[in-house]
């Protein structure tokens, strides 16, 4: 794709085959609407998700106006169209349910005939064929069913002198009809069958059924045909592939019925073929949607696992190894929340194209979900060879990408897992690749890494911790401790900082350093931060003590639209005045050029909430935000406090930071004060407020603590 604004390609987003999403959806709707057969898509519980007009006609359903055929897509609950199968003809409901349930239960295609019903003014049976759509664990996640009036199985008896009537009936039939010898050689054929297969009648009469059935289906056909001739079966109905003139292919329903003599011995066969190619094309589209990611067109998780298994099977002969590369986009949540989800999708679609273009011929590029992509490499010798592919993917992704007039250079962290056993488990390879990705991220991102036994153990523990933390948020294992912030003149408590702790059922009270990085990386920080804000405000509102409560807010919280609305709601519910809430933000948020973050800061200020810059002086590269944003205070990081009075550089840095704050007329709080000497030195240079163990350790009690 030429470098340019990816927004320009949004309306022309294309699948790997070059067809745009809109064109693909339009074709799909036209195809389903034009099918001569009914099509139903049901979930595993039998709820009908999609029905085309022909299905409604055959079943007697009244379809909602917005249930017209379309590519199924995730929709909000209040937009879901429910199609009630119980509104169909009562005689059909039980049989349709039985056949689709059997397909779900067995994981295999099921077929059956309903009792006769009036269709177009005459009694007909309906042929129902249900095909399960399987997930990666082999279970049916949905079932696609075709419904059509069943062809007449028994040939009409020929009246005396009725040869001409039989010939005219054959020639004008809308389905392919032939009379064959018992060995399948064509004796008579009608025009429809000739048109289906692309042969003249004389050409077809020189062939047998085995010549026009797909080579992979010939053995099955011959075995079933032998059973029919021997009398083991009265009639045959098979869904088979046919090969016509010039190698053309079609799917069709094949019905074989014997013509018997007066002694009931079969002498010839009546062959009926109904072209079902359109239906199978529609079912193929459904299967494709199940196995491919809708945004990028790449294989999704079920198909990726299948490709890994196939690659492992091939290594038994080659003796080489399979490499699985998990590629996570670095800091994509920031891009997504700032640019908006639609533009975020464009970024993911472009990254998907780049990953697919960077892999070797024969390798598989897929998308696991979110910002996680995967590459399956066949036949690699060692880690270095897999690393070459990883570097090629990284280089392709890192090309400039223009979004809304801004140039981005996305990067990916790649985790590599190599197979050691052809009998290995694809899921374990994916897990190892995920662990290696965490390792690559922890070592600086925009790189690739592998996993060894030590890393595997550490990554497993990290994944376990993430799952436990997710449960801890909802199970009430988190608690808040409060550390006082005091005035150095008199040491009155002017506020308290809320600090989260995790009382783990096995590991006891855990400090934030052990779990907050996991929360940040997994995205749980948003849910955890919301809990901290709510409980801290409630604790302050229910206390008679004066002063404010300070709450640390993650960058991931701040850049999400609606954070200020959440704060306003929490304040209103608790009754705490906005002036008694302080939001502590890191310098990375203050320096961010993201409009979303700056807008949320301005709205918090308008509410009356004070903004304090936490860990001030540890990583800033510009001070313009102190002028441009409504900052009411700064907190000097504890790393500068430890050397006060002993290290002249620390002294000069702290003096400079305090002078800066005083010059701007904003509050300055020094963290990490642990000794009387430090307190006296700070008071001597004009520091008014401080925080540290000298004045009080974090306590689960909010009330006033002696200092």
Descriptive notes:
There is one protein chain. The protein has 707 residues and is an alpha+beta fold. The protein folds into 4 domains: 121 residues, Beta-Lactamase; 120 residues, Beta-Lactamase, CATH 3.30.450; 155 residues, Alpha-Beta Plaits (2-Layer Sandwich), CATH 3.30.70.270; 223 residues, EAL domain (TIM Barrel), CATH 3.20.20.450. The protein has 24 helices and 28 strands. α17 packs parallel to α19. The chain is elongated and about 120 Å long. InterPro entries: Biofilm_reg_signaling, EAL_dom, EAL_sf, GGDEF_dom, Nucleotide_cyclase, PAS, PAS-like_dom_sf, PAS_fold. This is EAL domain-containing protein. Pfam families: EAL, GGDEF, PAS.
Q: What is this structure, in a nutshell?
A:
With 707 residues, the chain is of the alpha+beta class. It has 24 helices and 28 strands. The strands form 6 sheets. The chain has an 8-stranded mixed beta barrel, surrounded by 4 helices. It has a 5-stranded antiparallel sheet with strand order 2-1-7-6-3, sandwiched between helices.
CATH topology of the largest domain: TIM Barrel
The structural domain count equals 4
- Name of the CATH first level of the largest domain: Alpha Beta
How would you write the strand order of the largest sheet?
Answer: 20-21-23-24-25-26-27-28
> Major β-sheet, in short?
8 strands, mixed, barrel
Number of strands: 28
CATH superfamily of the largest domain: EAL domain
Q: Which structural class do you get from the secondary structure elements?
A: alpha+beta
What is the residue-mean pLDDT, rounded to a whole number?
Answer: 80
Domain GGDEF: 320-453
Region (Disordered): 1-20
Domain EAL: 462-707
Organism: Kineosporia babensis
């Amino acid at each position: 794709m030429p470098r340019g604004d990816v927004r320009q390609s949004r309306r022309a987003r294309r699948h790997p085959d070059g067809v745009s999403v809109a064109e693909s959806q339009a074709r799909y709707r036209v195809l389903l609407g034009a099918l001569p057969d009914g099509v139903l898509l049901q979930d595993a519980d039998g709820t009908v998700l999609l029905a085309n007009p022909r299905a409604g006609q055959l079943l007697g359903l009244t379809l909602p106006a917005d249930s017209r055929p379309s590519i199924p897509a995730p929709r909000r609950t209040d937009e879901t169209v429910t199609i009630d199968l119980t509104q169909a003809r009562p005689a059909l409901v039980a049989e349709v349910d039985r056949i689709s349930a059997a397909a779900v239960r067995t994981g295999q295609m099921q077929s059956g005939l309903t009792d006769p019903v009036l269709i177009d003014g005459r009694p007909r049976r309906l042929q129902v064929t249900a095909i399960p759509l399987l997930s990666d664990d082999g279970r049916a996640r949905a079932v696609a069913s075709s419904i059509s009036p069943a062809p007449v199985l028994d040939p009409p008896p020929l009246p005396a002198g009725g040869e001409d009537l039989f010939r005219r009936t054959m020639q004008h039939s809308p389905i392919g009809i032939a009379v064959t010898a018992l060995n399948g050689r064509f004796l008579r054929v009608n025009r429809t069958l000739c048109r289906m297969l692309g042969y003249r009648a004389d050409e077809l009469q020189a062939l047998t059924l085995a010549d026009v059935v797909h080579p992979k289906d010939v053995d099955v056909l011959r075995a079933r045909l032998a059973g029919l001739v021997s009398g083991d079966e009265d009639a045959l109905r098979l869904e088979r592939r046919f090969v016509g003139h010039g190698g053309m292919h079609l799917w069709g329903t094949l019905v074989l019925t014997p013509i018997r003599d007066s002694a009931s011995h079969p002498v010839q066969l009546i062959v009926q073929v109904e072209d079902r190619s359109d239906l199978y094309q529609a079912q193929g589209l459904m299967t494709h949607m199940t196995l491919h990611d809708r945004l990028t067109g790449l294989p999704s998780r079920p198909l990726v696992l299948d490709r890994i298994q196939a690659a492992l099977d091939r290594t038994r002969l080659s003796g080489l190894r399979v490499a699985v590369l998990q590629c996570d986009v670095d800091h994509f949540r920031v891009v997504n929340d700032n640019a908006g989800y639609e533009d975020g999708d464009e970024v993911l679609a472009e990254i998907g194209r780049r990953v697919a273009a960077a892999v070797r011929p024969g390798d598989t590029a897929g998308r696991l979900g979110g910002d996680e992509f995967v590459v399956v490499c066949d036949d690699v010798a060692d880690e270095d060879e897999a690393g070459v592919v990883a570097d090629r993917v990284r280089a392709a992704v890192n090309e400039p990408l223009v979004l809304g007039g801004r140039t981005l250079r996305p990067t990916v962290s790649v985790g590599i897992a190599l197979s050691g056993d052809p009998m290995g488990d694809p899921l374990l390879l994916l897990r190892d690749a995920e662990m290696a990705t965490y390792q690559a991220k922890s070592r600086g991102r925009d790189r690739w890494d592998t996993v060894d036994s030590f890393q595997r153990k550490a990554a497993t523990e990290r994944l376990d911790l993430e799952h436990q933390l997710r449960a801890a948020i909802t199970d009430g294992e988190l608690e808040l401790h409060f550390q006082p912030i005091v005035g150095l003149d008199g040491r009155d408590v002017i506020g308290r900082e809320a600090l989260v702790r995790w009382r783990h059922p096995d590991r006891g009270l855990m400090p934030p350093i052990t779990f907050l990085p996991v929360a940040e990386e997994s995205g749980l920080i948003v849910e955890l931060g919301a809990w901290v804000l709510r409980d801290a405000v409630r604790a302050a509102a229910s206390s008679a003590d004066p002063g404010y409560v300070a709450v640390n807010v993650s960058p991931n919280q701040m850049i999400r639209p609606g954070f200020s609305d959440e704060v306003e709601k929490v304040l209103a519910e608790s009754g705490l005045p906005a002036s008694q809430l302080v939001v502590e933000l890191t310098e990375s948020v203050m320096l961010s050029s993201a409009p979303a973050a700056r807008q949320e800061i301005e709205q918090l200020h308008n509410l009356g909430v004070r903004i304090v810059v936490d860990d001030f002086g540890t990583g800033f590269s510009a001070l313009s935000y102190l002028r441009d944003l409504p900052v009411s205070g700064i907190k000097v990081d504890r790393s500068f406090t430890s050397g006060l009075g002993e290290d002249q550089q620390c002294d000069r840095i702290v003096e400079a930071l305090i002078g800066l704050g005083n010059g701007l007329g904003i509050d300055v709080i020094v963290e990490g004060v642990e000794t009387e000497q430090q307190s006296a030195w700070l008071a001597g240079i004009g520091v008014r407020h401080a925080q540290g163990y000298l004045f009080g350790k974090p306590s689960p009690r909010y009330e006033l603590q002696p200092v």
